[in-house]
């Protein structure tokens, strides 16, 4: 039997058609083959060459797509990641595969030293991980995976087993990472936010003394062109921040980099709503979590909404400010559009975000095929350099869901079609030129394949899967 066919669960086989003999492989079959090829037995690598371990938010997006092929494997994907959770609740951004050579990826396990440097924070002893985190998409992913096959999920006790870990993960973010005191979670390293090389980090990173270039070797340049990757100077600053965090025992609140990011917090809010649904499924009241999500939405608006920019901006907590709250970073990135996911946004803000997305800064539906990761008119815009302009499929998926949540179905349908066309045309590229759709980075990229599957087979109406709670406030 074709191993791709084995990947598809019996419940999914009833609704997914196979290609007729002799016909070109469909997008579905091609995407399934990518996910099969990147499967390691317990989780899925983002790509075999550049990213040979398990990444946190990648696995959440991958599980969302895998649910259309094998709900069991989607559940396993999340369970494997959560098994590496630290005692303080953090979910590490990398879970290392011990069979991969140390020089295949940097920073490697011997850099992070999780089991020793992270002992006070409760790092696991039986698996090596990084010490930083990534955006909290996991509860949302768990809820969607459950909805794909509720019978299987209940039979395996999937939600009952992951709920305590997800709740602990959210507690960590809401308490240990509320570094600004305003209710929002902060990131302490650009890699935590996921959009690693965004120009939004340039100002806070300028205060960081870079690690000497001779102190590390960049394995990423073995797999990608230098002009498409972060500069050596930026990488040196990333290494310095990670080194200082490690040497401080991964304690939060003491480092020189602390930023409140709109996408990170929007995903936390969406996952809070999802946790409320999971709690209700398990027979517990979810009203307190929905109420917390609404309070977080209010904090997001109060702290990160910038009417002059027409979008949400990042707040640099370490920048001097008279009120001690830090300052907003004057850079427009796609992160500032991700809060469209939230059903509780005031309608005036939604309308402004829609204008910004389709306007000259992002060009959605006019000049760009997919949303660029950074302002088209910004001085740092580069259509090919990592997170400084290229379009990514995961942010497109999030904005597509956001448009659908806000009732903008025509725009959502158009973005969905662009994602599907470009995913297929680029062999599931890591990211693309936002103007031309030219493939950049790795191909056969797992979250691109997974999210294309989700858009191909997912319901295009706002159902209980995505309508997390309520409607828009006027």
From TrEMBL:
Q: Which InterPro entries match?
A: 6-hairpin_glycosidase_sf, 6hp_glycosidase-like_sf, Glycoside_hydrolase_63, MGH1-like_GH
Note one Pfam family from the annotation: MGH1-like_GH
| Keyword Heme attributed | no
Q: Where is this region: Disordered?
A: 1-23
Q: Which family does it belong to?
A: Belongs to the glycosyl hydrolase 63 family.
Its Gene Ontology biological processes? oligosaccharide metabolic process; protein N-linked glycosylation
Q: Tell me which domain of life the UniProt entry assigns to the organism this sequence originates from.
A: Bacteria
**Protein's recorded name:** Mannosylglycerate hydrolase MGH1-like glycoside hydrolase domain-containing protein
This protein's species is Streptomyces sviceus (strain ATCC 29083 / DSM 924 / JCM 4929 / NBRC 13980 / NCIMB 11184 / NRRL 5439 / UC 5370)
A GO MF annotation of the entry reads:
Glc3Man9GlcNAc2 oligosaccharide glucosidase activity
Residues in domain Mannosylglycerate hydrolase MGH1-like glycoside hydrolase? 51-448
